[in-house]
Structure formats: C-alpha cells, structure tokens
Amino acid sequence: MTFIGATHEVTDSCTYLETCGRRILIDFGMEQGKDTYENVKIPCAPSKIDYVLLTHAHIDHSGLLPLLYAGGFSGEIHATAATANLCEIMLQDSAHIQEFEAEWRSRKAQRRGEPAYEPLYTMEEAVGTLKLFRPHAYGEWFSLF
C-alpha cells in the first residue's frame, strides 16, 4: 500500500494498493487550493492499473480519473450508482473548465509570444472515463478477482 495523495493535506486523495497480482487505486483526486506538498508518483503506468475503487464523487477524490484514462487506464472504476451519476456531471464539467481555461491562457500566452497551454484533460477523455464506471447499489457485495 502506498499513500499517493492527501498525506499532508485534505485534498488530492489517492491510495495505491497492490494485492493478489492486481494493481488498485482507491480514489484519484484533484488538488484543491494551493499545492503545498508534492505527491508520490503512482508506482506503475496507468495502463497497468486494473481497478479504481471510488469512495465518493467529490472532485478531490475523482477529479483526475480522466487524466488516468488519458495515460492509458482501461480498467474498471467501481463506485456506488449515486457516485457514478454525480461523476458523469462533475467530470464533464471539470473537463469543460480545463479546456476553457487552457484556451483563455493560450490566448494570453500567444500575445506574449509564449507557447500555448494544454488542458489537464479534455471532454473526450472525461467521456471515455465514464464508460469505465461499474456502478453498484449501496450494500452490494462484489468481487474484483
């Protein structure tokens, strides 16, 4: 078990668990507020992660899932149905903000002769992420193995 994020602060939750030959992330959240501490890197490529267990939909627990997807993650994301429904709205909204802000910053940078900004992730990546969700009812038992 490796604590990736939220080890010194409340946001950016992520824990990496390797067990029974499987690689699992518990949450993959976005930093909220000032980035004071540098997180540990995930100890493998996103494409090597088998599952994400999402505890709830708050952006500081789910906000980097599209970045994981963009990096090659194609496993399953397990969450309650309510969390999956909220993520459908929140991750697309976050992608819209990422794209809008990158466009705005790029216009300003272009005037100064600086390179364009790239969004952290795109709407396409957010929508692709949503296809990986496996919603579960509250109290439902399921097995990853």
Structure explained in plain terms:
With 145 residues, the protein is an alpha/beta fold. It is built from four helices and six strands; from the N terminus they run E-E-E-E-H-H-E-H-H-E. It has helices at 59-62, 65-70, 81-111, 123-130; strands at 2-5, 14-19, 22-26, 51-53, 76-80, 133-136. Strand 2 and strand 3 (22-26) form a beta hairpin. Helix 3 (81-111) runs antiparallel to helix 4 (123-130). The radius of gyration is 16 Å and the shape is globular. The model has no long low-confidence stretch (mean pLDDT 90).
Radius of gyration over C-alpha positions, nearest whole angstrom: 16 Å
Instruction: Find the count of extended strands (DSSP E, 2+ residues).
Output: 6
Strand content: 15-25%
Unreliable sequence segments? none
* Distance between the first and last residues' Cα: 18 Å
Average pLDDT: 90
Global shape? globular
Structural class: alpha/beta
| Helix and strand sequence | EEEEHHEHHE
Widest sheet: strand order?
A: 1-2-3-4-5-6
Tally of DSSP helical segments: 4
- What characterizes the major β-sheet? 6 strands, mixed
Helix content: 25-40%
